[in-house]
Write a sequence for this structure.
C-alpha cells in the first residue's frame, strides 16, 4: 500500500506540473495522449488508495511568477477541459448514460476539435470589451490588445436582436499557409503550431501578433440574462455567425451514433485538407437546457466529450547523431532514435535539417524527445523533454571535415548550413546526382538501381552524369551487382532514354530547387536548351511561376564552365523534343 501511495503522489506531482505549464504558459511538455495515460493511471491507483480522502494533494503546488504583465480576469462561466477518448465504445457509453438519465431521445452536435489556444470573448452592447485566456479555467489573462489584431474577430457585432452581453468561446490557431509564411520570413524553426500561437498571444508587442495572421473560430456561446435561441447549441452558433462571429462549416446535428461515426471518419481522413491542426471531434449535447441539467464536475462538463484521432506523437530517445551529405553538398544531421511505431509506420531515424534547428530544440544525444508524424509529412522531432535529460546526455558537435571525402566544410552563416564544395569528387554527391539523372522524372533509366550506381562509382566507370551513356556490354559485364538479363535491360533502357523531353532533361541536371513543375515551366518558356544555357538572369526571371531564388540557381548553374561541358557531352548522345 505504501508503494501505491508513493506512486499516486509522484503521478499527482507530474499532473500538477503539466497542468501549470498548459494553463499558465499554454505550453505542453508531453503529447496529449501521454498526459491522458498519466491521468488514467492516477484515477485507477487513487481508487486503491485511501490517502486521496485526505487533503495531502492540496499541499502539492508549484510556485512560479507570472512572466508577462497581463491583467487577470475571472471567467463569466468556467472554461473547463474536455474528457477525451480514442475509443468509440466510450462514445456509446457517454450516450447511454445520458439517455438513462433523461429517458428520451436527444440531439448531439459534432464539431472539429481544433488544436489551438482557447479564448473567451466578451461582447457588451455588440462591442468587444474583453478577451481572456483559459488560464486555470476560472481565471485567465486579458489579452485584448493582441486579440484586436486578429482580422476575423469582429470588434463590433452587426445585425438585429443582439443581446446586452454575450460570452463567445473559441479557439485561436494558425493555418498551415500562414505558418509556412512565418517560417519562410523568419528562416526559423517552430516546434508546433500551438506553441507559436501561444507565444504570439502572450507577446507584449501587438505588431508581432498582427503580422502572424492568426485565425479564430467559435465553438460555444453563452448569453447573460436572456433566453437562448431554441435552447440549441447548433442554432446559437448559426445565429452568432450571422452577427459576424466566425464558425467552421463542418458541423453536424444528429441523434444517431452511426452519423457521429461517419462524421469522425470523414474528419479523420480529410484532416490535412481543413488547413489547420485538428486532433479529433467534439460531441456535445445540443440542448442548452439539458446541458445545464446535467452540469459539470470540477474538471469536465458532463454533456460533452472529445473523440480524438489516433496519436501522431510519441516519446522516444535519441541514440546517436550521424552526418550525411546531400547531392548539393549540404551536411545533413540525422538523429537515430529508439524505434517507434506511429500510424503503422516504423520510425528509427529523423532528419534534423540544420544547426539552427538543433539549437532551437536544445537537443542533446541521449535526450527524450517527442516525435510527430502524419502520413503526408516526414517525421520530425518537435520537442525535447528537458525534465528527463540525464547527466549522460552529450552535446551535438558538428564536424569540420566532410564525412565522405574528408575535404573541409564551409559554414554558410545565413542558412546555418555546412557545405562540402568537392562536388563530383565527393562520392555521395556524385551518387545522388546520378540517381537524380536516371530517375523517372529525368532520363527514366530506373532499371539501374542504387547498388549498381554505387559499384559503378567505386570502380570508377562513372565520374560524372554524362558517363551513363558510355556504359556498354563490356563495362556492365564486369559488375558483381547484375546478371545477364538485367545487363540487356539496362542497355535497352539507356538506348530508349536518348529521346527526351526538354523538361525531363532540365530536371535530370539536378539544379538546386528545380523540380518537375519548375522544369516544365522553364521548358515551355524557352523551348530550346541552347536558349536556357545562354539566357541572362532577367530572361530567366520572366519564366512564369518561378521565384528569384530559383532563377538565380538556374543562372548560376548554366554559367559554370564545367556544367556547360557536361551538358555538351550529354547532347552528343541524346535528342531533345518539346
Amino acid at each position: 500500500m505504501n508503494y501505491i501511495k508513493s506512486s499516486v503522489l509522484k503521478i499527482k506531482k507530474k499532473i500538477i506540473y503539466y497542468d501549470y505549464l498548459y494553463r499558465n504558459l499554454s505550453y505542453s511538455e508531453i503529447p496529449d495522449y501521454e498526459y491522458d495515460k498519466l491521468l488514467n493511471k492516477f484515477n485507477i491507483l487513487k481508487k486503491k488508495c485511501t490517502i486521496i480522502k485526505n487533503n495531502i494533494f492540496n499541499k502539492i503546488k508549484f510556485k512560479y511568477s507570472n512572466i508577462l504583465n497581463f491583467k487577470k480576469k475571472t471567467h463569466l462561466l468556467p472554461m473547463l477541459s474536455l474528457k477525451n477518448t480514442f475509443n468509440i465504445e466510450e462514445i456509446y457509453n457517454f450516450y447511454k448514460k445520458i439517455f438513462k438519465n433523461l429517458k428520451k431521445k436527444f440531439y448531439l452536435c459534432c464539431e472539429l476539435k481544433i488544436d489551438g489556444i482557447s479564448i473567451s470573448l466578451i461582447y457588451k452592447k455588440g462591442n468587444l470589451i474583453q478577451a481572456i485566456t483559459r488560464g486555470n479555467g476560472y481565471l485567465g489573462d486579458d489579452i485584448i490588445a493582441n486579440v484586436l489584431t486578429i482580422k476575423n474577430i469582429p470588434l463590433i457585432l452587426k445585425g438585429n436582436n443582439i443581446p446586452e452581453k454575450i460570452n463567445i468561446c473559441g479557439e485561436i490557431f494558425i493555418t498551415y499557409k500562414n505558418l509556412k509564411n512565418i517560417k519562410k520570413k523568419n528562416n526559423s524553426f517552430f516546434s508546433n503550431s500551438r506553441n507559436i500561437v501561444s507565444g504570439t498571444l502572450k507577446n507584449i508587442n501587438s505588431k508581432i501578433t498582427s503580422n502572424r495572421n492568426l485565425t479564430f473560430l467559435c465553438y460555444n456561446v453563452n448569453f447573460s440574462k436572456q433566453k437562448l435561441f431554441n435552447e440549441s447549441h447548433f442554432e446559437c452558433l448559426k445565429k452568432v455567425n450571422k452577427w459576424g462571429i466566425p464558425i467552421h462549416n463542418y458541423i453536424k446535428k444528429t441523434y444517431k451514433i452511426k452519423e457521429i461515426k461517419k462524421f469522425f471518419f470523414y474528419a479523420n481522413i480529410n484532416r490535412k485538407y481543413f488547413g489547420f491542426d485538428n486532433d479529433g471531434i467534439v460531441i456535445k449535447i445540443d440542448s442548452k437546457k439539458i446541458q445545464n441539467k446535467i452540469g459539470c464536475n470540477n474538471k469536465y462538463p458532463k454533456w460533452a466529450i472529445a473523440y480524438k484521432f489516433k496519436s501522431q506523437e510519441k516519446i522516444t530517445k535519441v541514440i546517436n547523431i550521424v552526418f550525411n551529405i546531400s547531392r548539393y553538398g549540404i551536411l545533413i544531421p540525422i538523429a537515430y532514435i529508439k524505434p517507434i511505431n506511429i500510424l503503422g509506420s516504423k520510425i528509427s531515424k529523423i532528419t534534423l535539417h540544420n544547426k539552427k534547428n538543433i539549437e532551437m530544440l536544445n537537443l542533446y544525444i541521449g535526450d527524450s524527445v517527442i516525435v510527430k508524424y502524419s502520413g503526408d509529412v516526414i517525421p520530425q522531432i518537435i520537442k525535447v523533454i528537458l525534465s528527463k535529460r540525464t547527466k549522460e546526455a552529450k552535446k551535438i558537435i558538428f564536424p569540420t571535415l566532410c564525412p565522405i571525402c574528408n575535404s573541409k566544410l564551409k559554414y554558410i552563416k545565413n542558412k546555418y548550413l555546412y557545405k562540402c564544395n568537392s562536388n563530383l569528387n565527393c562520392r555521395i554527391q556524385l551518387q545522388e546526382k546520378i540517381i537524380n539523372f536516371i530517375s523517372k522524372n529525368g532520363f527514366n533509366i530506373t532499371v539501374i538501381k542504387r547498388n549498381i550506381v554505387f559499384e559503378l562509382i567505386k570502380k570508377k566507370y562513372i565520374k560524372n552524369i554524362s558517363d551513363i551513356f558510355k556504359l556498354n556490354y563490356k563495362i556492365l559485364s564486369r559488375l558483381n551487382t547484375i546478371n545477364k538479363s538485367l545487363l540487356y535491360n539496362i542497355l535497352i533502357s539507356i538506348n530508349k532514354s536518348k529521346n527526351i523531353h526538354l523538361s525531363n532533361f532540365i530536371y535530370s541536371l539536378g539544379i538546386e530547387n528545380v523540380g518537375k513543375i519548375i522544369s516544365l515551366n522553364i521548358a515551355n518558356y524557352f523551348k530550346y536548351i541552347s536558349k536556357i544555357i545562354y539566357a541572362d538572369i532577367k530572361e530567366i526571371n520572366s519564366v512564369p511561376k518561378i521565384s528569384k531564388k530559383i532563377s538565380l540557381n538556374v543562372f548560376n548553374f548554366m554559367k559554370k564552365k564545367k556544367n556547360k561541358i557536361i551538358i555538351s557531352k550529354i547532347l552528343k548522345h541524346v535528342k531533345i523534343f518539346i
Remarks:
- The chain has 21 helices and 22 strands.
